[in-house]
Design brief:
The protein is an all-alpha fold. It is built from 4 helices and no strands.
Amino acid sequence: MGFDKTMYFKVEREENAKCQEVLKEVYEALVEKGYNPINQIVGYILSGDPTYITSHKDARNKIRTIERDELLEKMVKNYIGLDKE
């Protein structure tokens, strides 16, 4: 059997979808509780303090499943249009 070739494994699309889903859920939970979701999410990303995110609908735990630097990287890529790859 020829096992001399390296297999390429890519899961970025799935990770992007997970990040997007988590952000939407957190956003919706913040709206439901009457917060400005953009300000709260930015506060969390900049400070790392999870208390910026409501615990309503488990949003605080959900957003902590994504590394802040990973979240920021994906947001910047999305903003400049590099997430379409």
